[in-house]
Amino acid sequence: MSTSTAPRTQRQLPPSPPPKRRHRSTLRYGGNRLRRAGIVALFLAPSLIPLTLFTLVPMVSSLWVALHDWNLITPMEFVGLANFRELLTDGDTWAAFGHTLGYIAGYLPLVYLLGLAAALALNTALRGRNVFRAAYFLPVVTSWVVVALLWRWLLSPANGLVNHVLGLVGIDGPGWWTDPAWAMPSVILASAWKDLGFVMIILLAGLQAIPGELYDAARVDGTSAWQRFRHVTLPLLSPSTFFVVVISLINGFQVFDQVYVMTGGGPAGATEVVVQQIYDLTFRYGRAGDASALSWLLFAVVLVVTIVQVRGQRRWVTYA
Amino acid sequence: MRRAALYAGVTVGALVMLFPFTWTVITSLTPGAGLGTPDLIPDEPGLDAYRTLLDAMPFWRILANSLWIAVASTLLQLVTSAMAAYAFARLDFPGRNALFLVYLATLMVPMQVLVVPLFIEMRELNLVDTYAALLAPSIASAFGVFLLRQAVAQVPIELDEAATIDGAGHLRIFVSVVWPLMRPALATFAVLAFMSSWNSFLWPLVVIRSPELMTLPLGLSTLHGQFTTEWDVVMAGSVISIVPIAVLYLAAQKYVIQGVARSGLK
Amino acid sequence: MAHPIRLGTVAAAATLLALSACSQGSATREDSGEDGQVVVRYMEFSSNGGNEQHLEEIAASFERENPGIDVQIETTPYADYFTKLQTAVAGGTEADAFELNYENFVTYAESGALAELDVDGGAYTPSLLEAFQHDGAQLGLPESFSDVVLFYNKDLFAAAGVPEPTADWTWEDERAAAEALTDTAAGVWGDYQPATFHEFYKALAQAGGQFLTEDGSATAFNSPEGIAAATWLAGKSGTVMPTEAEGAGTPDFDSTLFREGKLAMWHSGIWMFGPLADVPFEWDVVVEPGDVNQASAMFTNGVVVSANSEHPEEAQAWLEFLTSSDTTVDTRLNAGWELPPIADQDKLAPYLEQTPPANRQAVFDALEETVLPPVIVRQQEMQDAVTEELGNAAAGRKTVEQAVADAAARVDELL
């Protein structure tokens, strides 16, 4: 048996499959209702129980905290929705969401295109491609603590390597993280560099699942390389793309480590992002209630964005 | 000609990707190095930083803790995530899409705000300062469920059907049909899960207080002084912490490639 | 065909490891030590980065004198210490005794998290002891102190033919020397003093200004003195001191610059004496130049007993030993660690005999005119706001006047 069997009849998720396929699905009408519930429980319990205990319960607790004033030291004081009201009327909150959206708007296309390029290049019969893949993946496994300091230095306006190289070709490099206009692009550049290996391995797995016969057939039809990419690769890669986009957005809204080390939110607050505010509010400013309220605002935004994507996927995601 | 261009492009890209690692290694071999441009070849390269590192903390104990926790959480997440992925991809039950969204929702609140409630919960469970507390939040992974759900969806359903005809139930199908065919995705997820545990900092920081239970990121953080930092030692720690994941990646890559090689047979 | 990652194997291994996690490691530490000893847990940050051994020695010495007490030290690096401490306090699992810097002491004292101490304070420098009183109660003990002086590279001064700084230098002398010493072509800078909150409140005092009004209800630094102080600090960047774009503000940038002999004058703390002991050039220190006043920054760390501690007497006994015993004084002086807060100056004599720097007396001379940071409940927010606005002035994003006015407005909102 070969894994290359074309996955012709995969079930589409989450939209309901056509009735015919439903009929062909396994065991669905076998056994009684209780038994089926038991099977579902058996498969879900090992993840659902720990997720409930160690993530959902703290999440709900933090919603409770959001209704209080709490500096973590004195007992909590109930204030109702005052924290939310305060945050929504605070310009800093809107600015932080703006910066976070700006980050995502730059980061997501960049990391996806770079990751896709790497995946396409390293999916060819290149000699030494394993070494190349490892090289592209290496930044993913390093820790931001060290790497962000390195980027700070690489992008140092006066004596950084990047501006030095730009200077050699006659370009006067920008002020990067010291310039409010360039600080976020600096963070985006460093982040895309670090994460493109992640996108690459997800897309590589997706590329490998595309049956070679489809390309052969397309070649017989006399298509150009671009047409094959456009009409075979991209559609069949869409489940992987969907995964990358959903996960990158969820993570992108929570960008923090690289900002914290590279710019600390500066200059002039130009890179102050939502999670940095959450961290400062909780652990530096003694305002755990505000921090919890802010993270629930963030949660609401991410949830809506994710639901929109999950609903929208049926328009563009093809499961073979 | 196009091949040459491809090689050139890929090589330049690889150099850009590798540069920071090279920088880390060189700095770690330059005694007394600061942050900044080290000489490409240090004047007097030495392993002093690595020796300092071993002396500065109960290094092997810390390494063992980290390895142990990372391996345990990776194995647990592989099993729990693959099972849930199977349920979401292959079983039909009411509220499935809503429940999947609940799983995804667990990824949407930043750890920075969950740390305090989770810590209080651990105190209630009497688990503060234990291995169990380190492991608890990483038994299951919604990220893994999502990643593996996409992989299960790519396993041809005819295979399930054939197995059903042979009288197999869902558990049998999962164990002997779906799991083996998901190996490339499992290998990918294993690397990412291991890495996430291996680099985890905030939660171990607050929940661990005994030096005997410290993990590597906690140990490495003690190298940053309040006023000064020995960067060569920090870099040496960074190099050491990358090695296990790099090894794991190379091992896992074999499985990913196997998938390719097989599809190449056709 | 063999499947090296067979599900059964993975599941079995995972279960095994999970079970051993629950059996191992739980309750690694009992509340009572060996032989029914009382365990006193102590959380701290200041031994991190080289003095861990020395703190252990002090604790061992205490335990020899007090066989009934077992001190358990939990060290966390400064950068992460307050995250860990606050989470522990929120969960009610903080140690019996813990360390706080002066700025954070007020927050904890106001929150009622600290136990009142019953000590004979005679051993301590009175001003330091007073710093840890709150509403008339002694809620903490001073543990160490340090101050900021002007470090200078004697070789660079000699090479440029500029006379070395003296104790009666003013800002004007410093400015003139810094300009003469700066040689951008050679990568040599005359001065280094970041435009931050911690430099600003001190420069403000030197200029004769006040940070807050007498009753503490509003800021008072949007004044001619405040603008003079901010101008003094922000004006250095890019003229006699590297700009942010040139690396200023990056961790260890300033210490590296000084160590490499490329910085003539440096405003820094006496905690740098140890790290600079082996540099290949001559250097010394002097009390920081003032303007209309002399004023030096003093930093002090304190130690406190948690209001939740079950062993407050034992915890206090440990803290008294830690802060004022002869063992501590000897250990701190020998290690070149921050100075003990004791009143008896004779005991500090060995410190003065060590070199470099030759002029260690400046450390104590600086104490004659000190200024403590202004402290409010929303301390960290105030510090961040002031530092950010001064940074805007230093980088030329705002005029100094605008930055000072904005900083004052932001701090007023926090009061």
TrEMBL record, chain A:
GO CC terms in record: plasma membrane
A Pfam entry, by short name: BPD_transp_1
Major subcellular site: membrane
Signal peptide: none
SUPFAM superfamilies, A to Z: MetI-like
Record keywords: Cell membrane, Membrane, Transmembrane, Transmembrane helix, Transport
Region (Disordered): 1-26
Subcellular location: Cell membrane
InterPro entries per record: ABC_transporter_permease, MetI-like, MetI-like_sf
Membrane topology: Multi-pass membrane protein
Transmembrane segments: 37-67, 101-122, 134-154, 196-215, 236-256, 293-310
GO biological process entries: transmembrane transport
CDD domains, alphabetized: TM_PBP2
Superkingdom of the source species: Bacteria
Domain ABC transmembrane type-1: residue ranges: 97-309
PANTHER family xrefs: ABC TRANSPORTER PERMEASE PROTEIN, INNER MEMBRANE ABC TRANSPORTER PERMEASE PROTEIN YCJO
Similarity annotation: Belongs to the binding-protein-dependent transport system permease family.
Name of this protein: Sugar ABC transporter permease
Organism: Jiangella ureilytica
Source taxonomy: Bacteria, Bacillati, Actinomycetota, Actinomycetes, Jiangellales
From TrEMBL, chain B:
Keyword Protein biosynthesis recorded: no
Domain ABC transmembrane type-1 positions: 63-252
Main location: membrane
Subcellular location: Cell membrane
CDD domains with a match to the protein in the record: TM_PBP2
Gene3D superfamilies in the cross-refs: MetI-like (1.10.3720.10)
PROSITE patterns assigned: ABC_TM1
Family classification: Belongs to the binding-protein-dependent transport system permease family.
Protein's UniProt name: Carbohydrate ABC transporter permease
Organism: Jiangella ureilytica
Lineage: Bacteria, Bacillati, Actinomycetota, Actinomycetes, Jiangellales
TrEMBL record, chain C:
Family: Belongs to the bacterial solute-binding protein 1 family.
One MF annotation (Gene Ontology) recorded for this entry: maltose binding
Protein name per the record: Sugar ABC transporter substrate-binding protein
Taxonomy, superkingdom: Bacteria
Entry keyword Transport: yes
Pfam families: SBP_bac_1
Gene Ontology cellular component annotations, sorted alphabetically: ATP-binding cassette (ABC) transporter complex, substrate-binding subunit-containing
GO biological process terms on file: maltodextrin transmembrane transport; maltose transport
CDD domains given in the database record: PBP2_TMBP_like
